[in-house]
Amino acid sequence: MEKTEILAPSPGKHNLENYEEAYKNFRWEDVEKEFSWYTTGKVNMAYECVDRHCETWRKNKVALYYSDGVRDEKYTFQDMKFMSNKVANVLKKLGIEKGDRVFIFMPRSPELYFAVLGILKIGAICGPLFEAFMMDAVRDRMQDCDAVALFTTPKLMERVDLPNLPALKHVILVGAKDEDLTDPRFHSFEKLMEEASREFDIVWVDREDPMMIHYTSGSTGKPKGVLHVHNAMIQHYQTAKWVLDLQEEDIYWCTADPGWVTGTSYGIFGPWLNGASSVIRGGRFSPDDWYATIEKYGVTVWYSAPTAFRMLMAAGDELVKKYDLSSLRHILSVGEPLNPEVVRWGMKVFGIRIHDTWWMTETGGQLICNYPCMPIKPGSMGRPFPGVYAAIVDDQGNELPPYRMGNLAIRKGWPSMMRAIWKNEEKYKEYFRLEPWYISGDSAYKDEDGYFWFQGRVDDVINTSGERVGPFEVESKLVEHPAVAEAGVIGKPDPLRGEIIKAFISLREGYTWTPELEEDIKQFVKKGLAAHAAPREIEVRDKLPKTRSGKIMRRVLKAWELGLPTGDLSTMED
Ligand code: WTA
Questions:
Q1: What is the pTM (predicted TM-score) of this model?
Q2: How far apart are CA 296 and CA 529, in angstroms?
Q3: Which atom of ligand 1 is nearest to the CA of 381?
Q4: What are the structural domains, with CATH classification, of the chain?
Q5: Does the keyword Acetylation apply (predicted)?
Q6: 7 forms bridges with which residues in the sheet?
Q7: 261 CB less than 6 Å from ligand 1?
Q8: Which portions of the chain are predicted below pLDDT 50?
Q9: Ligand 1 mutation pick, 468, 469, 497, 532, max ligand atoms within 8 A of CB
């Protein structure tokens, strides 16, 4: 066996100095004492993120730096408190109550962040949607949740299927002109905010009261609404302290959109619970802009994703040299496997390590990580966070010894664990079918030093550019196209994006396969769901492999694609 490459700990002082010791001694209960609710019994995530800091010198510290090429703004913790109070007053005036689902569907902007905090301040549940979603994706999620209010923009309003959202009572349009207010349910965000008071009595909730819903994909069925509660703050706070290593002077940049869990857990909650200054960049990915952002703000801690690093790598090392990136002291990654090659590139161009972290929408916070004080083995996700017990188990839930590949499982009970799948208890229970484990759906092994190594997904979930796509949702959309009789969708390995979506289809009578039809089908999915969910490759077959009960066998499609043996075909129809 090749000798494992090891990178020495990062230099400097870190919040976590000794991993082994912390792993032995750390208890989550100790963290609770740091929050006011430990003494008052009253809790609200938005209070702990923002208002609490306004009782100290931090009220004048910058919480949010925002730029997108047009706007260039900054907001102190006190500004954030007042703006989120205004949003809370707006919602209260509209009759929104504790437990109501309020969605956000808009591009990254300061208003988006005011809205998240304001929604939490009235005790409502926040459902953030990625701005690239198209009509079907937006409608499915809001319908499932019976969303009563929505923050969006006049432009994105085109993708909100109002007639099919009967529960939706209020649409708050950011940047609307008078002529955009064409429906009695529509309101101007700016007008409402202007009239609203900046003082608000926070709605105190219980630790176990719902806070956020993030939709994510599985291998079957529509996207699932993963429900998180205010108690998650314990984990967000402590992981941001020890994994992100956030210190008072840091300038932190998380590149994730709040439509995905990384963009809330570590784009909002983790950093602000620690009173850190956060950079938010609007607009799309561009290597030049990204490096310029690090230089402009003197970013010190940077949390991003493998596909982004690979794209930066592809943009060339000359570009890196055009910018002063010497402020960077700590870099992290999440969402997909981080190739050792990317880590080596990071060492070369930034002179520091990229720290891989593993977790999921369902886990709410980081679980297996590389820490600044710990040696890194490039290619490994790292070791369990103190207070977390991770294991590799077989299909009966028995723990496996080092180097045996199996299900990556976590002993249940960490603070930020999801508390429900919205309106789908059965799905929720599936994750916990092997007591006392939470079964992640990932396969991995553990080495003799306790480092975990990711191997793949156990199910058919596709991870393209770090975005989770359920094959079922794409297949369902494909068969709505008049030319498509059957569809099976798989992830095809790709050097840049990790995986790309490949669809196998059969055509209906009377259709011939042409480049125009192929493009039309791709556009059809793109316009219905989202660009990232559209197949990049489509292959036509006369017939697709199916079980006798009629289920498309994606396993066989994958074997076709990779030129591998198709395995046991005994359940296949003739
Ligand atoms: C994958 C993102 C390899 C994994 C926070 C997981 C990873 C899914 C890593 C969750 C990593 C996440 N190495 N794979 N460090 N981190 N994944 O819900 O398959 O969007 O189950 O959460 O991404 O994706 P999700």
A1: 0.95
A2: 35
A3: 15
A4: 75-229 (3.40.50.980), 461-562 (3.30.300.30)
A5: yes
A6: 376
A7: yes
A8: 1
A9: 468
